[in-house]
Design a protein that fits this description.
8-stranded mixed beta sheet, about 240 residues, disordered N terminus, alpha/beta, globular, two-stranded antiparallel ribbon, 6 helices, Rossmann fold, single chain
């Protein structure tokens, strides 16, 4: 399966953190950088045809290989799968992981700034891929922290036809902060493991209930695993994208 690289600009977060030793401060300065997005095309990709694009956002500490166990299934069903890498790297369990909102810094002000910039980053990824490939509909898929980002980027977005979220939290304020009402709201698919010890099931059921109350069409499924995307559930999500239910 072809594996190409697209790149999108991002402005990094800026924040004055707590004073360091010897009267020093640590400052985060906004700069334009190029970040990697891995794009997997269907084996029979034809530039004269239009395809559904799925932008998949990995979880906290994840990487661009986080969806490799599902990549072939997306291509086999004629979907373009794009996986951007989160902008902020840190060491977790002895290896480098990546963070969308500087969660590992545990600074609410810094998290809020980084979140706004990551929303812009995902929007730039979508725009860049639309300029390179013949794209019909766009779906945002997110796992854990990436699922939260999929919610806050996709809710109310004119660019997004659907949102797929696995093992993620949800906050009611994300509905209040969404852009003005659309004539057609994005569809939503929510899946959550009954054995998830990191994110309680209430995160998923709260999202389901509040989104339905706000007029969103929501498909909800639970499964017997934990904090993960089992291949079987991933295939169910692909069917949901293609079949409209």
């Amino acid at each position: 399966m072809p594996k190409l690289l697209a790149r999108a600009g991002l402005v990094a977060a800026v924040c004055l953190t707590s004073p360091m030793a010897f009267g020093q401060d640590s400052v985060r300065v906004p700069v334009e950088v190029l970040l990697e997005t891995t794009v997997r095309l269907p084996a029979d990709y034809d530039a004269s045809h239009s395809y559904t694009l799925v932008v998949a956002l990995h979880g906290y500490g994840g990487n661009i290989d986080s969806f490799d166990h599902l990549a072939m299934a997306f291509g086999d069903r004629g979907l373009i799968l794009a996986v951007p890498r989160a902008p902020y790297d840190f060491v977790i369990d002895g290896h480098h992981g990546y963070d969308w909102v500087l969660q590992h810094r545990r600074d609410p002000e810094l998290v809020a700034q980084a979140r706004r910039r990551s929303i812009d980053y995902v929007q730039r990824v979508i725009a860049e891929l639309r300029s390179r490939y013949s794209v019909a509909d766009v779906y945002l898929l997110g796992f854990s922290q990436g699922g939260a980002l999929a919610y806050i980027t996709g809710i109310g977005s004119e660019q997004v036809a659907g949102i797929l979220v696995f093992g993620a939290r949800f906050h009611p304020s994300w509905l209040e902060e969404a852009p003005g009402a659309k004539s057609t709201l994005p569809r939503v698919f929510i899946a959550h493991g009954m054995g998830d010890r990191l994110i309680p099931m209430s995160g998923a059921t709260t999202a389901r209930d509040l989104l339905r109350k706000s007029g969103y069409e929501v498909t909800f499924t639970s499964f017997g695993g934990g904090h993960e995307i089992p291949s079987k559930v991933g295939l169910k999500a692909i069917d949901w994208i293609l079949n409209g239910r």
